[in-house]
Each structure stands twice: as C-alpha cells, then as structure tokens.
Design goal:
globular, about 50 residues
Length: about 50
C-alpha cells in the first residue's frame, strides 16, 4: 500500500470542500460537522497515520 502525506494546502482544500447532500445512512461521516471540527478531525487522522 502506498502512503501519501498531505501538505497544509491540500488538507485545507479538503476541509474547505463544499458539503454534498447525501442520504442519512447511520454511518459516521463528517458532513454534519462544522468547518473547524472537520479540520480537527482531518488533523487527528493525519496525526494518527504518522505513528
């Protein structure tokens, strides 16, 4: 499996991607999170991949 590390501008672009209307499935997603919460979640995911 290839590993890829996002730089700050790529992470910001992902975090600023507009939300899309999707059907509620009961599976966790970040669509209902605020922008700051999505950024925190993305940062924690990236941080966990460094370990």
């Amino acid at each position: 499996m290839k590993k890829y590390t996002l730089n700050e501008s790529e992470a910001k672009m992902i975090a600023e991607t507009p939300r899309r209307k999707v059907v509620k499935t009961g599976i966790f997603n970040d669509l209902d999170l605020t922008k700051s919460d999505r950024i925190k979640r993305a940062a924690s995911i990236l941080d966990s991949r460094k370990k």
